[in-house]
Amino acid sequence: MTFRHKHLLGIEPLHPTEITTLLDLADSYVDLSRGAAKHSNALAGLTQINMFFENSTRTQASFEIAGKRLGADVMNMAMQASSIKKGETLIDTALTLNAMHPDLLVVRHPHSGAVDLLAQKVNCAVLNAGDGQHEHPTQALLDALTIRRAKGRLHRLNIAICGDIAHSRVARSNLILLGKMENRVRLIGPPTLMPAGISELGVEVYDDMEEGLKDVDVVMMLRLQKERMDGGFIPSEREYYHRYGLDAAKLAHAKEDAIVMHPGPMNRGVEIDGTLADDINRSVIQDQVEMGVAVRMAAMDLLARNLRSSDAARDGANA
Ligand code: NCD
Predict the structure, then answer these.
(1) Which of 207, 252, 284, 318 has its CA 20 to 30 A from that of 52?
(2) Which atom number of ligand 1 is nearest to the Cα of residue 168?
C-alpha cells in the first residue's frame, strides 16, 4: 500500500496511485458498512476529535460514523459553544486540544488555509473537512469512488462541473483529482461564477448548459453558495434555474447513461430539479453519501497506519 502522508489537507499533494490505494480500501469499507456487523478495530484505542467551525450536516455525521465504525473514541467539539466565542484564537484552541492527545483531528473552517496552519501546530494527523474556497479532499474522493463504481473506471471520462465554481472548494478539489486521473473536465456556469485565471487550468469553459453537457458521462452540479456572495453574481434564482438549473430537458444533451451528482446540501429548484435529483435511474446523490462514510473510513485508516509506523520508528530510534 502506498499512501505516504501524515495529514490529508488536500488532493494537490496526492499521487494517482495513492488515490487508487485509498479508493480500493474504501471499496472494502462499503462492503463492511453494508453488512450486519459494521465494525472493525482499525482505529481502536485512538481518539478522533471533530472540530467544525462552519455548519455541516453530512460531512460531520459521516466522519463521526466512520470513526465509530473503526472503533475510535470520537468526540465532537461544539464550536458554537466553545471558547472561540470568547475570543480564543484558532491556534490556542488547537494547542488546548493537542494537549489532550488526540490522534486524528477533523477540521472544517471558513478560511482557506486555516486547516494547513493548524496542522503545523499539532502532533496528530489532521484531515481537512473543507477550508473556505480552497479544498475539500474527502468530498472529491467520495465523488471519485461514486464515479468509479457507477462507470466502472475513473479515467478518460467527460465530466462537467456546473454552477457556482468560483465559491466552491468541492469544484477545486474535484478538478485537481479528476485531472490527475486523466479525465476531461469541463466547467459550465455564468462568467460571474467562474474563478479568475480559469483559462490557465487547462479545462474547457462553457456558459451554456446545452452546449457544455454534450456527450458528457458525468454531470456534477454545485450548490449556489449564497453565503459566500455579496450580491450581484446572478440576476435572480428564477433566471439562474432557467439557464443553469439541471432538469431532464438539459440532461438530454448529455450521454444517455450520464449520471447526475450533487455534494449536498441541494437548493431544489435553483441548481437542480427536485424530481431529477430523486430519480434513482439518473441520480447517484444518495450513493455519494454512502461512499462518503467509506472514503472517510479509508482516509482515517491510512493516516492511522502512518501514525503507528512513525511511532514505531521513533520508539525504535530511542531504544
Ligand atoms: C459542500 C461543502 O460544505 O463544501 N458540502 C458538503 O460538504 N457536502 C458543498 C456545499 O456546501 O455546497
Answers:
(1) 284
(2) 4
Residue 45 burial (CB < 10 Å; 0-12/13-18/19+)?
exposed
Which bin fits 137, alpha (ψ -120 to 50), beta or left (φ > 0)?
alpha
Q: Quick check: is 243 catalytic?
A: no
Distance CA 135, CA 169 (A): 5
Q: Give the distance, in angstroms, between the CA of residue 289 and the centroid of all CA atoms in the same chain.
A: 11
Q: In the chain, where do the E strands start and end?
A: 47-52, 73-77, 104-109, 125-131, 158-162, 184-188, 204-206, 218-221, 259-261
Verify whether residue 20 is a known catalytic residue. no
Q: How far is the CA of 118 from the centre of ligand 1 (A)?
A: 21
pLDDT digits (tens, 9 = 90+) for 168-192: 999 999 999 999 999 999 999 999 9
* Position in ligand 1 atom list of the atom nearest CA 222: 12
151 in active site: no
Distance 55 CA to ligand 1 centre (A): 10
Distant-in-sequence, close-in-space partners of 78: CB < 8 Å, separation ≥ 6: none
Q: Is 130 in the pocket of ligand 1 (CB under 6 A)?
A: yes
Output the average pLDDT for the chain. Answer: 94
Active site residue 47: no
Q: What is the pTM of this model?
A: 0.95
Contact between 115 and 131 (Cβ < 8 Å):
yes
Beta strands in 114-232 (DSSP E): 125-131, 158-162, 184-188, 204-206, 218-221
